[in-house]
UniProtKB/TrEMBL annotation:
The gene is fabH. Residues 264-268 are annotated as: ACP-binding. This is Beta-ketoacyl-[acyl-carrier-protein] synthase III. Pathway: Lipid metabolism; fatty acid biosynthesis. The keyword Lipid metabolism applies. Keywords: Acyltransferase, Cytoplasm, Fatty acid biosynthesis, Fatty acid metabolism, Lipid biosynthesis, Lipid metabolism, Multifunctional enzyme, Transferase. The keyword DNA-binding does not apply. Homodimer. Its main location: cytoplasm. Its EC number is 2.3.1.180. Residues 109-190 form the Beta-ketoacyl-[acyl-carrier-protein] synthase III N-terminal domain. It is found in: Cytoplasm.
Protein backbone atom coordinates (compact mmCIF):
# COMPACT_ATOMS: atom_id res chain seq x y z
CA UNK A 1 0.00 0.00 0.00
CA UNK A 2 1.03 3.58 -0.66
CA UNK A 3 1.50 6.27 1.97
CA UNK A 4 -0.33 9.60 1.78
CA UNK A 5 0.77 12.99 3.04
CA UNK A 6 -0.43 16.59 3.04
CA UNK A 7 1.62 18.37 0.40
CA UNK A 8 -0.05 21.78 0.43
CA UNK A 9 -2.33 23.82 2.69
CA UNK A 10 -4.44 26.91 2.13
CA UNK A 11 -7.15 28.91 3.87
CA UNK A 12 -9.46 31.83 3.24
CA UNK A 13 -11.75 33.89 5.47
CA UNK A 14 -13.95 36.85 4.49
CA UNK A 15 -12.59 40.32 5.19
CA UNK A 16 -15.70 41.32 7.17
CA UNK A 17 -14.84 41.12 10.89
CA UNK A 18 -17.79 40.81 13.31
CA UNK A 19 -16.89 41.48 16.94
CA UNK A 20 -18.80 40.53 20.05
CA UNK A 21 -19.71 44.19 20.44
CA UNK A 22 -21.21 44.13 16.95
CA UNK A 23 -23.45 41.20 17.96
CA UNK A 24 -24.44 43.00 21.15
CA UNK A 25 -26.16 45.58 18.95
CA UNK A 26 -28.41 42.84 17.55
CA UNK A 27 -29.20 40.74 20.62
CA UNK A 28 -29.06 40.73 24.40
CA UNK A 29 -25.43 39.74 24.86
CA UNK A 30 -22.03 41.28 25.53
CA UNK A 31 -18.34 40.64 24.98
CA UNK A 32 -17.76 39.28 28.50
CA UNK A 33 -20.69 36.81 28.24
CA UNK A 34 -19.48 35.43 24.90
CA UNK A 35 -15.81 35.18 25.83
CA UNK A 36 -16.55 33.52 29.17
CA UNK A 37 -18.61 30.76 27.54
CA UNK A 38 -16.78 30.24 24.24
CA UNK A 39 -13.46 32.10 24.21
CA UNK A 40 -14.51 33.85 20.99
CA UNK A 41 -13.65 37.51 20.48
CA UNK A 42 -14.60 37.91 16.82
CA UNK A 43 -15.50 35.96 13.71
CA UNK A 44 -15.71 36.55 9.94
CA UNK A 45 -19.02 36.81 8.12
CA UNK A 46 -19.69 36.95 4.42
CA UNK A 47 -20.90 40.42 3.49
CA UNK A 48 -23.53 40.91 0.83
CA UNK A 49 -21.88 41.71 -2.46
CA UNK A 50 -18.38 40.51 -1.52
CA UNK A 51 -18.62 37.58 -3.94
CA UNK A 52 -18.11 34.92 -1.29
CA UNK A 53 -20.06 31.68 -1.13
CA UNK A 54 -19.25 28.31 0.37
CA UNK A 55 -17.93 27.11 -3.00
CA UNK A 56 -15.98 30.24 -3.95
CA UNK A 57 -14.26 30.40 -0.54
CA UNK A 58 -13.33 26.74 -0.97
CA UNK A 59 -11.82 27.53 -4.37
CA UNK A 60 -9.78 30.43 -2.94
CA UNK A 61 -8.33 28.15 -0.25
CA UNK A 62 -7.79 25.36 -2.79
CA UNK A 63 -5.77 27.55 -5.17
CA UNK A 64 -3.34 28.37 -2.36
CA UNK A 65 -3.02 24.72 -1.35
CA UNK A 66 -2.44 23.58 -4.95
CA UNK A 67 0.27 26.19 -5.50
CA UNK A 68 2.02 25.26 -2.25
CA UNK A 69 1.87 21.58 -3.18
CA UNK A 70 3.84 22.39 -6.30
CA UNK A 71 1.36 20.79 -8.68
CA UNK A 72 -1.04 21.93 -11.35
CA UNK A 73 -4.81 21.95 -10.97
CA UNK A 74 -4.85 19.35 -13.73
CA UNK A 75 -2.89 16.99 -11.46
CA UNK A 76 -5.89 16.75 -9.11
CA UNK A 77 -7.46 13.28 -9.41
CA UNK A 78 -10.35 13.74 -6.97
CA UNK A 79 -12.09 16.52 -5.03
CA UNK A 80 -13.60 15.80 -1.61
CA UNK A 81 -15.70 18.71 -0.33
CA UNK A 82 -16.85 18.85 3.30
CA UNK A 83 -19.60 21.29 4.34
CA UNK A 84 -22.95 21.56 6.09
CA UNK A 85 -23.76 24.79 4.25
CA UNK A 86 -23.57 24.14 0.48
CA UNK A 87 -24.55 26.80 -2.02
CA UNK A 88 -27.40 24.60 -3.23
CA UNK A 89 -29.52 21.82 -1.75
CA UNK A 90 -28.11 19.94 -4.73
CA UNK A 91 -25.75 19.59 -6.52
CA UNK A 92 -22.97 19.59 -3.96
CA UNK A 93 -20.00 21.92 -3.71
CA UNK A 94 -17.48 19.47 -5.09
CA UNK A 95 -18.65 19.80 -8.68
CA UNK A 96 -18.72 23.59 -8.34
CA UNK A 97 -15.07 23.53 -7.32
CA UNK A 98 -14.25 21.29 -10.30
CA UNK A 99 -15.93 23.80 -12.60
CA UNK A 100 -14.44 26.91 -10.99
CA UNK A 101 -10.94 25.44 -11.10
CA UNK A 102 -11.54 24.35 -14.71
CA UNK A 103 -10.42 20.78 -14.05
CA UNK A 104 -11.47 18.41 -16.82
CA UNK A 105 -14.19 15.93 -15.65
CA UNK A 106 -12.46 15.33 -12.33
CA UNK A 107 -14.54 13.17 -9.94
CA UNK A 108 -15.96 15.04 -6.96
CA UNK A 109 -17.82 13.94 -3.87
CA UNK A 110 -19.30 15.70 -0.85
CA UNK A 111 -19.03 14.84 2.84
CA UNK A 112 -21.79 15.89 5.23
CA UNK A 113 -20.29 15.24 8.65
CA UNK A 114 -20.39 18.78 9.98
CA UNK A 115 -17.69 19.50 12.59
CA UNK A 116 -15.81 16.27 11.90
CA UNK A 117 -16.30 16.65 8.15
CA UNK A 118 -12.73 17.57 7.29
CA UNK A 119 -11.21 14.57 9.06
CA UNK A 120 -13.79 12.28 7.45
CA UNK A 121 -12.89 13.81 4.07
CA UNK A 122 -9.18 13.46 4.84
CA UNK A 123 -9.76 9.79 5.66
CA UNK A 124 -11.48 9.27 2.30
CA UNK A 125 -8.54 10.88 0.51
CA UNK A 126 -6.06 8.83 2.51
CA UNK A 127 -7.74 5.55 1.58
CA UNK A 128 -8.03 6.38 -2.12
CA UNK A 129 -4.30 7.12 -2.20
CA UNK A 130 -3.26 4.13 -0.11
CA UNK A 131 -5.10 1.75 -2.44
CA UNK A 132 -3.37 3.29 -5.46
CA UNK A 133 -6.51 4.58 -7.14
CA UNK A 134 -5.51 8.26 -7.02
CA UNK A 135 -2.29 10.21 -6.57
CA UNK A 136 -3.48 13.74 -5.71
CA UNK A 137 -6.70 14.47 -3.83
CA UNK A 138 -7.97 17.97 -3.05
CA UNK A 139 -9.74 18.07 0.32
CA UNK A 140 -11.78 21.18 1.21
CA UNK A 141 -13.74 22.25 4.27
CA UNK A 142 -15.83 25.38 3.73
CA UNK A 143 -18.77 26.98 5.54
CA UNK A 144 -21.16 29.90 5.17
CA UNK A 145 -22.93 29.96 8.53
CA UNK A 146 -23.82 33.62 8.78
CA UNK A 147 -26.59 33.45 6.19
CA UNK A 148 -28.63 31.00 8.25
CA UNK A 149 -28.31 32.11 11.88
CA UNK A 150 -30.91 33.67 14.17
CA UNK A 151 -29.40 37.03 15.14
CA UNK A 152 -31.98 37.75 17.82
CA UNK A 153 -31.75 37.11 21.54
CA UNK A 154 -33.63 33.86 20.98
CA UNK A 155 -30.76 32.48 18.92
CA UNK A 156 -27.78 33.93 20.76
CA UNK A 157 -26.68 30.61 22.31
CA UNK A 158 -25.80 29.39 18.81
CA UNK A 159 -25.38 32.48 16.66
CA UNK A 160 -22.49 34.00 18.64
CA UNK A 161 -20.40 30.87 18.06
CA UNK A 162 -20.25 30.42 14.29
CA UNK A 163 -18.21 32.08 11.57
CA UNK A 164 -17.53 31.71 7.84
CA UNK A 165 -14.38 30.52 6.09
CA UNK A 166 -12.62 27.76 4.19
CA UNK A 167 -9.52 25.59 4.38
CA UNK A 168 -8.00 23.15 1.91
CA UNK A 169 -5.33 20.48 1.71
CA UNK A 170 -3.73 18.66 -1.19
CA UNK A 171 -3.19 15.06 -0.12
CA UNK A 172 -0.69 13.25 -2.30
CA UNK A 173 1.16 9.97 -2.60
CA UNK A 174 4.31 9.92 -0.49
CA UNK A 175 7.55 8.07 -1.13
CA UNK A 176 8.79 8.68 2.40
CA UNK A 177 8.15 5.62 4.53
CA UNK A 178 6.82 6.57 7.94
CA UNK A 179 5.93 10.13 6.96
CA UNK A 180 2.44 11.35 6.19
CA UNK A 181 -0.96 10.24 7.44
CA UNK A 182 -0.38 7.28 9.75
CA UNK A 183 -4.03 6.52 10.51
CA UNK A 184 -7.54 7.97 10.79
CA UNK A 185 -10.27 6.94 13.22
CA UNK A 186 -13.98 7.63 12.67
CA UNK A 187 -17.05 7.19 14.91
CA UNK A 188 -20.72 8.11 15.16
CA UNK A 189 -23.58 7.86 17.65
CA UNK A 190 -26.82 8.80 15.94
CA UNK A 191 -29.06 8.48 18.98
CA UNK A 192 -27.97 12.02 19.93
CA UNK A 193 -28.53 13.44 16.44
CA UNK A 194 -31.13 16.05 17.43
CA UNK A 195 -29.05 17.47 20.30
CA UNK A 196 -27.10 19.45 17.70
CA UNK A 197 -29.11 19.80 14.54
CA UNK A 198 -30.89 21.85 11.92
CA UNK A 199 -34.16 20.10 11.07
CA UNK A 200 -35.19 21.97 7.98
CA UNK A 201 -35.78 22.80 5.29
CA UNK A 202 -35.58 19.10 4.51
CA UNK A 203 -37.75 16.31 3.19
CA UNK A 204 -39.32 16.17 6.66
CA UNK A 205 -39.71 19.93 6.95
CA UNK A 206 -40.33 21.59 3.60
CA UNK A 207 -40.70 25.38 3.67
CA UNK A 208 -44.49 25.49 2.95
CA UNK A 209 -45.11 23.06 5.80
CA UNK A 210 -42.93 25.08 8.18
CA UNK A 211 -44.86 28.26 7.39
CA UNK A 212 -48.23 26.53 7.73
CA UNK A 213 -47.31 24.97 11.08
CA UNK A 214 -45.67 28.14 12.47
CA UNK A 215 -47.60 31.17 11.15
CA UNK A 216 -46.30 33.33 13.99
CA UNK A 217 -42.71 32.17 13.53
CA UNK A 218 -42.51 31.02 17.16
CA UNK A 219 -40.82 27.68 16.52
CA UNK A 220 -38.72 27.81 13.38
CA UNK A 221 -36.85 24.54 12.69
CA UNK A 222 -34.59 26.00 10.01
CA UNK A 223 -32.40 27.67 12.63
CA UNK A 224 -29.71 25.50 14.29
CA UNK A 225 -30.45 23.98 17.69
CA UNK A 226 -27.79 22.99 20.20
CA UNK A 227 -28.09 21.45 23.65
CA UNK A 228 -24.89 23.17 24.73
CA UNK A 229 -24.14 21.49 28.05
CA UNK A 230 -24.94 18.02 26.72
CA UNK A 231 -22.75 18.56 23.66
CA UNK A 232 -19.89 19.84 25.84
CA UNK A 233 -20.02 16.81 28.16
CA UNK A 234 -19.96 14.37 25.25
CA UNK A 235 -17.30 16.29 23.37
CA UNK A 236 -14.67 16.20 26.10
CA UNK A 237 -15.14 12.45 26.50
CA UNK A 238 -15.06 11.61 22.80
CA UNK A 239 -12.15 13.96 22.07
CA UNK A 240 -10.06 12.17 24.68
CA UNK A 241 -11.08 8.71 23.48
CA UNK A 242 -10.42 9.25 19.80
CA UNK A 243 -7.08 10.96 20.38
CA UNK A 244 -5.90 8.06 22.55
CA UNK A 245 -7.25 5.56 20.02
CA UNK A 246 -5.13 7.13 17.30
CA UNK A 247 -2.01 7.35 19.41
CA UNK A 248 -2.25 3.75 20.62
CA UNK A 249 -2.86 2.46 17.08
CA UNK A 250 0.55 3.86 16.17
CA UNK A 251 2.44 2.90 19.33
CA UNK A 252 2.50 6.51 20.52
CA UNK A 253 1.70 8.26 23.77
CA UNK A 254 0.46 11.71 24.73
CA UNK A 255 4.05 12.81 25.35
CA UNK A 256 4.78 12.16 21.67
CA UNK A 257 2.34 14.84 20.47
CA UNK A 258 4.17 17.79 18.96
CA UNK A 259 1.02 19.59 17.80
CA UNK A 260 -2.66 18.97 18.52
CA UNK A 261 -5.11 20.75 16.22
CA UNK A 262 -8.58 20.31 17.72
CA UNK A 263 -11.77 21.30 15.93
CA UNK A 264 -12.45 24.87 16.99
CA UNK A 265 -15.85 24.29 18.60
CA UNK A 266 -15.34 26.05 21.91
CA UNK A 267 -12.10 27.23 23.49
CA UNK A 268 -13.23 25.71 26.82
CA UNK A 269 -13.33 22.23 25.23
CA UNK A 270 -9.80 22.66 23.84
CA UNK A 271 -8.54 23.91 27.19
CA UNK A 272 -10.13 20.97 28.99
CA UNK A 273 -8.37 18.49 26.68
CA UNK A 274 -5.09 20.35 26.94
CA UNK A 275 -5.21 20.24 30.74
CA UNK A 276 -6.25 16.59 30.82
CA UNK A 277 -3.35 15.55 28.59
CA UNK A 278 -0.96 17.99 30.31
CA UNK A 279 0.01 19.63 27.02
CA UNK A 280 1.76 22.99 26.87
CA UNK A 281 0.46 26.00 24.95
CA UNK A 282 3.07 25.25 22.28
CA UNK A 283 1.54 21.79 21.72
CA UNK A 284 -2.04 22.95 21.03
CA UNK A 285 -3.15 25.39 18.36
CA UNK A 286 -6.34 27.41 18.81
CA UNK A 287 -7.64 30.25 16.66
CA UNK A 288 -11.35 30.19 17.57
CA UNK A 289 -10.77 33.54 19.26
CA UNK A 290 -10.43 35.14 15.78
CA UNK A 291 -12.75 33.05 13.62
CA UNK A 292 -15.36 31.37 15.81
CA UNK A 293 -16.50 27.87 14.95
CA UNK A 294 -16.20 27.37 11.20
CA UNK A 295 -17.32 23.71 11.41
CA UNK A 296 -15.74 21.67 8.56
CA UNK A 297 -13.37 24.54 7.82
CA UNK A 298 -12.01 24.95 11.35
CA UNK A 299 -9.31 22.26 11.31
CA UNK A 300 -7.84 23.10 7.89
CA UNK A 301 -7.83 26.83 8.72
CA UNK A 302 -6.08 26.17 12.04
CA UNK A 303 -3.70 23.61 10.50
CA UNK A 304 -2.76 26.07 7.75
CA UNK A 305 -2.11 28.87 10.25
CA UNK A 306 -0.07 26.65 12.55
CA UNK A 307 2.11 25.57 9.61
CA UNK A 308 2.44 29.14 8.30
CA UNK A 309 3.55 30.30 11.76
CA UNK A 310 6.29 27.67 11.92
CA UNK A 311 4.63 25.71 14.71
CA UNK A 312 4.70 22.48 12.67
CA UNK A 313 8.06 21.17 11.46
CA UNK A 314 9.22 18.15 9.49
CA UNK A 315 9.17 15.03 11.64
CA UNK A 316 6.56 16.38 14.08
CA UNK A 317 3.72 14.16 15.26
CA UNK A 318 0.56 16.10 14.44
CA UNK A 319 -2.85 15.06 15.80
CA UNK A 320 -6.17 16.30 14.41
CA UNK A 321 -9.35 15.66 16.39
CA UNK A 322 -12.99 16.69 16.02
CA UNK A 323 -16.41 16.16 17.55
CA UNK A 324 -19.76 17.47 16.44
CA UNK A 325 -23.26 17.00 15.12
CA UNK A 326 -24.35 13.46 14.47
CA UNK A 327 -22.84 12.88 16.94
CA UNK A 328 -19.72 12.13 14.94
CA UNK A 329 -16.10 12.29 16.04
CA UNK A 330 -12.75 11.51 14.47
CA UNK A 331 -9.00 11.80 14.70
CA UNK A 332 -6.04 11.68 12.34
CA UNK A 333 -2.44 10.96 13.31
CA UNK A 334 0.27 12.31 11.03
CA UNK A 335 4.07 12.35 10.90
CA UNK A 336 4.85 15.65 9.22
Amino acid sequence: MYQSKIAGLGSYVPENVVTNDDLAKLMDTNDEWIQERTGIKERRHIKKGDGNTTATMGVKAAKIAIERAGISKDDIDLIVFATLSPDYYFPGGGVQVQDMLDINTCPALDVRNQCSGFIYALSVADQYIKTGMYQNVLVIGSENHSGGLDFTTRGRGVSVIFGDGAGAAVVTRSDHNGQGILSTHLHSEGKHALELSLKGPSTLHWVPEIIAENPQGDDIPYYPYMNGQFVFKNAVVRFSEVIMEGLQANGLDVKDIDMLIPHQANLRISQFIQQKFKLSDDQVYNNIQKYGNTTAASIPIALTEAWENGKIKEGDTVVLAAFGSGFTWASAIMKW
